[in-house]
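Dear colleagues,

I hope this message finds you well. In preparation for our joint manuscript, I am sending the Claudin (Astyanax mexicanus) sequence together with its predicted structure, so that both groups work from identical material. I would be grateful if you could confirm receipt.
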Amino acid sequence: MNAAVEAMAFFLGFFGWVMAGVAIPNRFWRVAEMEGNVITAATVYENLWMSCLVDSTAVHNCQDFPSMLGLSGHVQASRALMIASIVLGTFGLVATLVGMQCSKIGGDNYILKGRTAALGGIFFILQGLCTMIAVSWYAFNITQEFFDPLYPGTKFELGQGLYIGWCSATLALLGGTCLLCSCSVTTKEKKLSYAYRGPTRGTAYTTSVTTTTPHPYDRNAYV
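The corresponding structure tokens are as follows:
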């Protein structure tokens, strides 16, 4: 049962890692519709790296952000967190693959493999937290600007890249939690098996020997 849980957790973490890699280059983190007539209508969409505009003739015009230091603080933080998410997910995949019971990579030391799998679960949880913070922070700024009546710029809405990021974070958190729960159950079972193990062969038993002193009027006293 634990091996099946570890395999399921590995695939959850793997799909979460893949979806995080899909969310980073996705262009539709925030989308805005530019109102106008049929000729001047356009759609603006942005992500962490570039800003694009598509007009009514379906012509796309994308431009990278000119300066990283000139970006908003939440965009820079989201970039760093998403990159850290990919790195942590990579470590989590390697550690989980080595620590799984059905894997022969780490040898037959199941105690060490269990600890390695638990470390992989921690990496998956950190990956999910980084992705969740980055996506949620970015979405918070979008909603804050959208509902601010005094905001003079273009008001954007949530794009599909944010939803991909939320799904990625959820899968990574589920995979890491399953790994930690599986390792904790395995540790408890091993402790119980050692606790109920009977005495082994060659165990020395001590018995108390009662010594009695001879009575002064015993028959041996007269010999």
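For the figure legend, we might mention the following. Residues 190-198, 200-212, 219-223 have pLDDT under 50 and may be disordered. The helical segments are 2-23, 73-99, 110-146, 160-195.

With kind regards,
E.M.
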